[in-house]
Protein: aldehyde dehydrogenase (NAD(+))
Amino acid sequence: MSLPYAPRFAFYDGKRQSGTSTSSFQTIDPATAEPLANIHTTTHAAIDSAVVSAQKAFPAWSATPPIERARILQRAAALLRARNDEIARIETSDTGKPFSETSTVDVVTGADVLEYFANLVGGGGMNGETAQLRPDAWVYTTKNALGVCAGIGAWNYPIQIALWKSAPCLAAGNCMVYKPSEFTPLHSTALAEVYAEAGVPPGVFNVVQGGGDVGAYLAKHPSIAKVSFTGQVATGKKVAGSASGEMKYVTMELGGKSACVILPDADVDQAVDGAMLANFFSTGQVCTNGTRVFIPEAMKPEFEKRLLEKMQFIRPGDLHDPNTNFGPLVSKPHYDKVKSYIKHGIENDKAKLLCGGTEIPSWLASHTNKAYKNGYWVQPTVFTNCTDDMKIVQEEIFGPVMSILTYKSVDEVISRANNTDVGLAAGVFTKDLNLAHKVIAQLEAGITWINTWGESPAEMSVGGWKQSGLGVENGKKGLEAWVRNKSTLVEMGGAVPTVFAKL
Structure:
């Protein structure tokens, strides 16, 4: 049977490598549960070859003047923008996210990051510092590329995350071997081909395909200098432990259970809009989602009333219809996981189900695309009367499931918001900006918002606190994560100081 997309193989030495696999699997369209393409798992020997390809390319690429690397990466960013809709359709097929989202967010924000780091290194971002110690001595520093790095992507924002990792990596003069998630791998060779067309030399950006065993082999590889991973906390701990045990550099962007705090003076309509954005965008499959929604006790009736009124504006359906803004979950295993959490919230936690639940969405019965009935569709779900000890409140569900909790005082909500071992994101909604800054300063999270949610522009360094990660991505600090610094002290006095002179 012919599949919608061509097979995916490893990509190194500047081309697809069709003879690098002894097994394959299929990537699945989440909307219909039908196969999209055959993905050929990269063998360990082929991973070694990809790493060797990167090693061969590294000396010349790292020695290329930053402004020349910048020009190549700027061309790649322009190609991504020119092919925005084409790549967005691939992302929609692979992730189940509506085209209205992938066409305006996923490729666009990835290209923004690529352009940002190209401009940063082209404008002197790789420059070091100098310091005059005394008239005849001074210190200078240089920023040096690390070598061959591994990027291990996640399934919820495939092309964006691939660019968040490869853009600063390549801009700094490193080479990368990238492994996409086995659930959403279609973007990987498309990105490799864009880089190649833009002029990125063979071996600088390479792709390997497969599951966790491929990622583990890559992370442990003795010739890998750094591992950048995005994924769940438990897996991130294993990857970080393996990499750091070999003294590799690591960047970990892991999960969260973020607090969305509605302060007492907030406009109810805006608070509802913010909470919905923080829970239902991307079908809730966002690591920074504000799934613990804290509202003042007195606001609860009005908040829930307006929330129920606005839930009708969540529009599942044909993913290529520009009016659709809600898609299926990414895979069958994840679908089963999210539904089990909803069931637990109803039957075990005994939270009040305000809307949604485990039943098949009613709109599927009348949808013209009958294949959608087999897809991984769930209802956007809201629980209320929640307490901090409930499983649905404590654990990351990674789906469209909101938990509403009430509080009496600002000090109380700050304490409860911080009562978690993860600290990826948090946000507040209020008219009082002075109070907003005071609350944000006390929230234990690495990414925070005031009167908005979710935006992570290229200029904004983002990373988690606690068990939500190590290091940051994007912004000026993001470049520092891909270089190692060298300090040199120069003595010009004409004599070498010594304590071993003859008395």
Remarks:
- The radius of gyration is 24 Å.
- Residues 10-254+468-487 form a domain with the Aldehyde Dehydrogenase; Chain A, domain 1 fold (CATH 3.40.605.10).
